Amino acid sequence: MDAKRIYLDHAATTPAHPDVVKAMQPYFSDIYGNPSSIHSFGQEAKAALESAREKVVVLINARPDEIVFTSGGTESDNFALTGIVYANEKKGDHIITSKIEHHAVTECADFLAKRGFNVTYLPVDKYGMVDPMDVKKAITDKTVLVSIMHANNEIGTIEPLADIIKIVKEKGVFFHTDAVQTFGHLPIDVNKIKADLLSLSGHKFYGPKGVGALYIRKGTRIVPFLRGGAQESNRRASTENVPGIVGMGAACMIAQAEMATAALRETALRDKLIRGIMEKIPEVTLNGHPTARLPNNVNIAIKYVEGESILLNLDMMGIAASSGSACTSGSLDPSHVLLAIGVPHALAHGSLRMTLGRQTTVSDIDRTIEVLPPIVEKLRAMSPLKKGGK
Amino acid sequence: MAGPYSEKVMDHFMHPRNVGELPDANGIGQVGNPVCGDIMKMYIKVKDNIITDVKFQTFGCGAAIATSSMATELIKGKTLEEALKLTNKAVAEALDGLPKVKMHCSVLAEEAVQAAIDDYLKKTTGKGLPGFKPHEEPLEEHEH
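Structure tokens for the assembled complex are given below, as produced in the milestone run.
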């Protein structure tokens, strides 16, 4: 196939920005010292590390000593949950989270639940929104942590964090948010919303893979997740991933400069794609909130067809997307997020996620709107769920 | 760009054989359910104990569509006894293999053939296929 390939899976990962790659380059074999070493090789690396830290904090209005670099979003989430819970064992044993969190949070909560902690998984409405009043009702005097994501990675719904955190802080409980999908894409001010912990990941905003961070509000006691060294002020052992951290710092600079215009541009493309699909394909519904939504996220349920077969067909046409289908993950259950917002099983299996990025063009959107309808028509024609073929 | 699948699976997925409904079918079987995400409907026309025509409709992933397509090819023109000997392994092998997590699709294809023959036998002899019981739940009319 000669046509240009179109990548609509930016929620899965983004390409590293050329400036990011350039910034990282010297830190593999020129400036290769260990930041913990006192000699000049080490101190050069240490300086790069601290400079990157200052670039990260600008995006969330934090202080440099409130950032712990990690290996990515999953580690940050695991660190936040286990670290807070184990540091507050004497205070309580109750955790509140939602049914639509990333698996890095839910499976960690499941793990803690099996070890005697009590976990409340809050329901969400049909758009995937957590009701702040549900949070209020769920908090007990044993609650130590509330963890609600900033925006959902599958359906793009942005949670009413400020309202939720206000309630949580009134009760003196710690609040963590997984901001992996929003950091570098939407403005966040940890002091304004009063989050105590926030997870972020480098490769979701044009930084490198294998690096992320956890923001930890100053004065918050936390048990380390990795032990065996004094790095990151005794909060995360292991020699720092200097090239990755430098790259993520560079990505923060780019995000700072481009975030506002990128969000506007992507929102317009997103709504064009949603409209185009709705106009051309009958019996299609939008999953997630229509407006309180990530600027780059489109998630649609397509009746009578299964997600993986749409993805394979799109891939043959050079378009890369993702689905809520079980078949792509190897398990039989469709997405827990789609089930939580009340999408019926068959429809959850037929959901398609397209996430746009800085390189997505209007013609990419036009092409997708042109390519998708015949694929759906072809698959519906062979579906036993669609009465009378098409 | 075949992803997890063999070229043969992709060929049958992109260009499925014998797809559609069969108006003069005298045996129709349906297996799977929307909860697991795969539904196969198999139509057969039997004459003098031979499957003279076969068609399928499938809601499912790439492997589900490819195994349905391959199963129809493997039983077309065969006697009922021969068709009943079709195993899921034979379907998978004819497709040059399936990823482990997709083997259940080949089981569904085998059962779809049996369900169609079971229906034919019920209609013609009043008695279904001895011991036939697809292990998936029957299709629910409602999607919940």
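Chain A has 14 helices and 13 strands. Chain A touches chain B at residues 304-309, 312-313, 315-316, 325-327, 330, 332, 334, 344-347, 349, 381-385, 389 (CB under 8 Å). Further analysis is deferred to the final report.
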